[in-house]
Amino acid sequence: MKKTVMLKVNPQTPEIEKVRIAAGFIRTGGLVAFPTETVYGLGADALNARAILTLFEAKKRPLDNPPIVHVCDIKDVHRLAQEIPTTADKLMRIFWPGPLTLIFRRSNIVPDVTVAGLDTIAVRMPRHNVALALISESECPISAPSANLAGKPSPTAARHVLDDLDGRIDAVLDAGPTVIGVESTVLDVTVDPPQVLRPGGTPFEALKEVLDQVELNPAVTAEKPVPAEKVRSPGIKHKHYAPNADVVVVEGELSAVVRKVNELAMYYMKRGSRVGVLCTDETVDCYQADVVKSLGSRSNLASIARNLFAHLREFDLERVDVIVAEGVPLEGLGLAVMNRLRKASGYKIVKASATL
Ligand code: TXA
Ligand code: MG
After folding, report:
1. Which of 168, 220, 251, 293 is the least crowded, having the fewest Cβ atoms under 10 Å away?
2. pTM for this structure?
3. Short-list 184, 143, 120, 4, CA closest to 61
4. Pocket test for ligand 1, best of 183, 184, 308 (most atoms within 8 A of CB)
5. Mean pLDDT of 103-119
6. CA–CA separation, 258 and 287 (whole Å)
7. Which CATH superfamily is domain 5-216 in?
8. Cα of 69 to ligand 2 centre, how many Å?
C-alpha cells in the first residue's frame, strides 16, 4: 500500500503548487485522480507504457479496454491521431473543451498498451480548469479512465475515489463534486456516418444539430447484453456501473411504473431483502421501501444525471440488497442515464404496462 496524497484545490482557479505536485507524479510514471466536468478520472502519462500498466492494475481493469486520452489543446490531437477528418475538426471547435470523446486512427507515437492494441485512439479535452492545468503542467497527454475500481459506479466526488482506490494511487486532486455526473459521449469519427458508441454528457440531439448524419450504435439503447462479436467499443462488453446491491429497472408510462415499483419493492421486502427505491421528485412520496431516494425532477434530466452514481453508491453504504429504479425518458441526458442504469442492472429490465 502506498500513501495516497490528498490535494484540495479550487475548481476554478487551482493552486498551481498543488497542481505541480500532482504533475510531478504523472511525469514520473505515477497515478493521479483528478476532476473533470463529467466524473473523476485516474490519470497516467499516455505515452509511458509502464505507467499505463500500473493504471490498469490499480483499477483492476481488463487490459483489453483502453482508457480515454485527455489533452489540453486541440493541437495535441495532431500528435496522437494519424488523420483528423473534417467532421472531427468541426466537432472539436464546437464541443471542446467538453464531454465529447472522439475516436481517431492512432499515430505511431502511442504505445500499444495505451490503446489496448487497437489501431484507434479515444481523445477528449475536458472542460475543467483543474484537469486542464494538470495536463498542461505534466506536459504529456493523460490517459484517464474513470477513477473507480473496474465494474463499480464512476466517482463523482473525491470521497468515491478514495473509497475504491485509497492506497493504490499516488494522489487525488479534490475540487468538489463534478457537474455533469455521467461520462463523456464517445463518438467514432473513423466511420461514415459518425457513430455514438457510448451516450454521455453531450446529448445525441446536440450532435444531430451540427452533423448532417450521425448514428447511435445499437449497443447504446440495447435492452439485453450485446454479443461480444458485435461490440465496437471495448468497454461495452464488461460489467459496469454496478453497486453491490442487485438493480432492477422499471420502464414505461409513469403511473404504471409507480405501481410496478411498489409491487416489486413489496415482493422483495416480503422475502426478507432490504429494498431501496431510486426515483424522482415527482414520485418520491408514492413509495414504501426501506430506503427511498430521489435523483431530482423529471423536468431536469441534468440533475438526474448528476446524482445517479452518487446515489447508487449511497445505497451500498445503507446496505440495501435490492435497488428498484424508475426509468426516465431516453432523451437528452436521459439516454446516458438509462444506458448506465440498464447496465448496472445487468439488463434486469421490467416493462410496466398501463393495463393491469
Ligand atoms: O467522461 C469520461 O469520458 C471519463 C472522464 C474521466 O474523462 N472517462 C471515462 O473513461 O469514462 P473510461 O476509460 O472509463 O471509458 C472509456 C470508454 C470505454 O467505454 C472504452 O471502451 C471506450 O471509451 N474506448 C476507449 N478507446 C476506444 C477506442 N479506440 N475505440 C472505441 N472505444 C474506445
Ligand atoms: Mg469507466
Report:
1. 168
2. 0.96
3. 143
4. 183
5. 97
6. 8
7. DHBP synthase (3.90.870.10)
8. 13
